[in-house]
Amino acid sequence: MSARMHATAIHWPGLGGALILGPSASGKSDLALRTLGLGALLISDDQVILTRKANILIAEAPPPIAGYLEARRIGIIAVPSIAAAALHAAFIIEGGPQTSRLPEPQPLSLPLGATLPSFRIDPLEACAAELVRAGLWLLAHNPDQSLPSLAGFISKPGAS
Q1: For residues 136 and 88, is the Cβ–Cβ distance under 8 A?
Q2: Is 103 helix (H, G, I), strand (E, B) or coil?
Q3: pLDDT at 156
């Protein structure tokens, strides 16, 4: 069984997959493009096919759009991509002052009876792509979500 969602999905090697949710023209593709510049891979842009295997939610692209992203004011471009990957978090597009400064990941119910931890994110923040990476890192290295720490995430100058 599968479900199709209006969303964008990326995979960060070593950290996991992220589902980016928001209304049309809210900045999903723009945020995904910025994550790609930092080493992420596109799973799918604009439409995501979800399947569930046990407790793992898998994202993949519909075949006609696999490997392509809509870059506004540029066009449809081929980008580094991966055919499918497990999702570990959802990032919900939300701009402006209502975005919480110190949120706890909230469970988000998705199709197929799946749930992912979710963060609200303002895609216009200069650090938005890094926040996606940091959220995935925290979940990968701190699965019980107690005492969040970015130690090890940010490399110190001169450290190898």
Answers
A1: yes
A2: coil
A3: 45
